[in-house]
Design a protein that fits this description.
- There is one protein chain.
- The chain has about 800 residues and is mostly helical.
- It has 25 helices and nine strands.
- Among the domains are: about 220 residues, Rossmann fold, CATH 3.40.50; about 280 residues, no CATH class.
- The strands form two sheets. A seven-stranded mixed sheet has the order 2-3-4-1-7-8-9, sandwiched between helices. It has a two-stranded antiparallel ribbon with strand order 5-6.
- It comes from Streptomyces meridianus.
- Keywords: Membrane, Transmembrane, Transmembrane helix.
- InterPro entries: AB_hydrolase_fold.
């Protein structure tokens, strides 16, 4: 008999930004062995059938590279997903829930708290859909069809609206018909939001996860990923249905699509209802309008019920679809919209458009509703965190509510920016709402007050930036002695020392991000409340509301409103311009791809119009590959992940059964597992989850640097390491040499988040991991490999230029 344990495999997973398989494998001759053009696994051509080769003992493992960058940044059209930024941010809030305490809350109380958290996040997400569609209605219905088209001064300057002008007496001249025609724009917007959500749902959420081991009983989990308290369940990311949110996304997509249609219908009905009630109650149009209003109210209640009825169910892959909800809810809402449009377009003698459109006060109501929901979310999160185990949790469990505030603020910024830019474009040189001789266009007063708060918020941001700069300068001074101590015998070089200490200090600012986010969220809440209160109390834009105040105060109020209005519009235009640039510029497309790599790791659990979750494709890919390879060959596997690739690797290992995990070693470097994910998503990457992962894999080592602004230690207790060493290696020196040496004749760069594979510690740790598998041939040291056949690469496969790949 032979003691040959079978082949060994090293599976490389790159970080954000992406790279090529040639760079990852250090060979220009590679071949894809499985997968497609979107995401696939590649090998060197010489290793294509390495497992089946006769007498195939080799020095070191077979190397494979999993390339997943096209899941997020491969298509230039995805750059336009920047407009969906508020939806992406609010989706992250769902996953920021504090861990459910196992001992201090009863089973029923823990379930109620977790369900309430998920429900509140879904309602906040629903309010963002209403806000975006209402902003489109403000532009199309109010500013364009109602105010500008009804004003002779405005249509004189905008000839393309001439066919709507009342003085021309055309078929489209009556206000109701103008509104019905303008409603096409928000309806098309709703359809454009639905279409990519439907298409990406087919490409991502419908990917089947790894089939669970039939001998393993599924843990008892309820909706929203809630464990049964006190029963020692496995981490939530190990649940078979965690990466398969097909049913929930379909329900939410139907509900949000219906919400868009109903928002347009409500604003149309509100405009007609004011005229019909003024013309006399009991008329046929008044009765019809009341019947439509009742139907709209029932439909709105049905949408809210669908959103509240069911959260995520992760106990097992749920292949069912609520077809009645998915098909009937949007269809019924669209039919009501069509009936409302016909009702509004019906000829009404004597109906003229003057002043703002009835119903534009919806922006103030949305702001109040969002503030109430965020406050309730903060109370639930605080209740969970107060009784949960300790740990490095961002903002003491209030990270979710703080980020929810930022999502609402982003939604308000985009909505207000669109409305303000449209008003400025239509009224020419005059100031909207100020009555200075131009067309009397009046955007919603709440938006004007929000615009006036933008300069104040910018001052808060500037103060926060100065505070971070001050902390960085102080940290750099403290780090300079420690930098020299890392290089004993090196000659002192003040400039070189400052440069290295500055990199360490800037990397440490990542740990100050929660306080900065919290301060911005508090400022946004206070300023938003002041904007709503000022709009409701005065009914005028800030400049007009201050006529009784001294002239300098009045001038400051007008300046703040004008500057804020300009800044709101500028932010929207910058996002659009950045998206268009990404069509032609690969570097811009990669930059935008990095943003989505970080923000779209999590499934769409709150907002279906958010960019799709690439992990719902990448995690099943990796877990299927590891399970099938170890099962078919009986060999051992090292999965090697850099940056975001380490998060994907950990999530994939969690999906395996115990027999497969026993054959797998985990090597992570530049990993944000604890530093970012553990702090911001403690219910899923908290200390208990990372400790469980460490205990279940064969072995795990983590490499990190103090100059790395993203990666860091995973902080798994060393006492739980069966091999007697901790998961975290002591921090790697960066740069490798302080000054020129015989081995490093040229100055070594400060690599920060890149270049991990170029550090000798990487080859050393990989060899140690393989050596822990009994009977495996040792890994050759990198120094014995000779010159590489391709470009020198870092831990994520990036060419060694010192740039960050994470």
């Amino acid at each position: 008999m032979t003691d040959d344990p079978g082949p060994a495999l090293e599976l490389l997973v790159h970080g954000v930004g992406g790279t090529t398989p040639q760079e990852m494998l250090k060979d220009c001759r590679t071949v894809r062995v499985t997968g497609d053009d979107i995401a696939g696994i590649h090998r060197r051509i010489d290793d294509t059938d390495a497992e089946n080769r006769a007498g195939g003992r080799r020095d070191g493992p077979v190397r494979e590279a999993y390339c997943w960058s096209n899941l997020t940044s491969g298509n230039g059209s995805r750059a336009l997903w920047l407009i969906l930024l508020p939806f992406m941010v609010v989706n992250l809030v769902h996953w920021m829930r504090p861990p459910v305490p196992d001992e201090h809350l009863s089973r029923a109380a823990a379930r109620r708290a977790a369900r309430a958290y998920g429900l509140l996040v879904r309602l906040i997400a629903l309010s963002l859909t209403v806000l975006l569609v209402a902003a489109a209605c403000e532009v199309a219905l109010d500013l364009t069809a109602w105010q500008c088209a009804g004003s002779a001064a405005c249509t004189r300057d905008t000839s393309w609206l001439g066919f709507l002008a009342p003085e021309r007496g055309g078929w489209w001249s009556p206000p109701g018909r103008r509104l019905a025609l303008a409603a096409v724009l928000p309806v098309v917007l709703t359809g454009l939001l639905w279409w990519p959500a439907h298409r990406t749902w087919s490409d991502y959420e419908s990917q089947p996860p790894l089939r669970p081991d039939a001998t393993r009983a599924p843990p008892d989990h309820d909706e929203d990923g809630l464990d049964e308290p006190g029963s020692g369940e496995r981490p939530a990311l190990s649940l078979p249905g965690f990466w398969y949110g097909r049913r929930l996304v379909a329900r939410l997509r139907a509900a949000h699509t219906a919400t868009g249609f109903l928002t347009v219908a409500v604003l149309l009905a509100a405009a007609a209802a004011r005229h019909d009630r003024g013309a006399g109650a009991g008329t046929a149009l008044d009765v019809t309008g009341r019947m439509l209003a009742a139907a709209l109210a029932v439909s709105g209640a049905a949408v809210v019920w669908v959103v509240c009825r069911r959260g995520r169910s992760e106990r097992a892959p749920d292949h069912r679809l609520d077809r009645a909800v998915v098909r009937l809810l949007p269809g019924a809402a669209f039919a009501l919209l069509m009936l409302t449009a016909v009702h509004t377009a019906w000829e009404r003698p004597g109906w003229v458009s003057s002043g703002p459109l009835p119903g534009n006060g919806v922006f103030g109501l949305i702001g109040v509703a969002q503030g109430t929901l965020v406050l309730a979310l903060a109370l639930v999160a605080r209740r969970l965190q107060r009784r949960a185990p300790g740990g490095r949790v961002a903002l003491r469990g209030l990270a979710g509510p703080a980020v929810a505030v930022l999502a609402c603020a982003l939604g308000g910024l985009l909505s207000g920016g669109v409305a303000q830019r449209e008003a400025d474009w239509l009224d020419g040189p005059s100031t909207p709402g100020m009555g200075d001789g131009g067309p009397a266009l009046a955007p919603p007063t709440v938006l004007a007050w929000q615009a006036a708060m933008i300069p104040v918020l910018l001052l808060v941001l500037a103060a926060g930036a100065l505070w971070l700069a001050h902390r960085s300068a102080q940290a750099r001074r403290r780090e300079m002695p420690a930098v020299l101590a890392e290089y004993p015998g090196a000659r002192a070089d003040a400039a070189r020392t400052r440069r290295i200490a500055g990199a360490v200090a800037r990397a440490g600012l990542t740990d100050s991000a929660p306080r900065f986010v919290g301060a911005v969220a508090v400022a946004a809440v206070l300023l938003g409340a002041a904007a709503v209160a000022g709009a409701w109390a005065t009914g005028e834009v800030p400049g007009l509301a201050s006529q009784d105040l001294p002239r300098p105060v009045n001038a400051a109020a007008q300046t703040a409103q004008a500057l804020g209005s300009w800044l709101m519009g500028l932010c929207f235009l910058v996002l659009v311009a950045w998206g268009r640039r990404a069509y032609r510029d690969p570097s811009a497309r990669r930059t935008i791809g990095i943003l989505w790599d970080v923000g779209t790791f999590w499934p769409r659990a709150a907002h279906p119009f958010a960019p799709p979750c690439y992990a719902e494709r990448a995690v099943p890919d990796l877990s299927w590959r590891m399970a099938t390879w170890t099962g078919n060959t009986g060999g051992r596997l090292v999965i090697s992940g850099h940056s975001q690739g380490s998060v994907l690797a950990a999530a994939a290992v969690w999906q395996l059964d115990g027999r497969a995990r026993a054959r797998i070693a985990l090597l992570t470097y530049g990993s944000p597992l604890e530093r970012l994910y553990g702090r911001w998503f403690p219910a899923f990457f908290g200390p208990a989850s990372l400790l469980a992962l460490h205990r279940e894999v064969h072995s795990w080592r983590n490499l990190w640097r103090r100059t790395d602004p993203i990666g860091g230690p995973v902080r798994v207790p060393e006492a739980d390491d069966a091999a007697g060493t901790g998961v975290d290696r002591p921090p790697l020196r960066d740069p490798l040499a302080f000054e020129r040496t015989v081995r490093h004749p040229l100055p070594e760069p400060v690599r920060g988040h890149s270049g991990y594979q170029e550090d000798p510690a990487f080859a050393e740790e990989r060899a140690l991991l393989l050596g822990r598998f009994p009977g495996l041939p040792p890994q050759r040291d990198a120094a014995d490999d000779g010159p590489p056949t391709g470009p020198v690469t870092d831990a994520g496969g990036q060419a060694g230029s010192g740039r960050s790949s994470g």
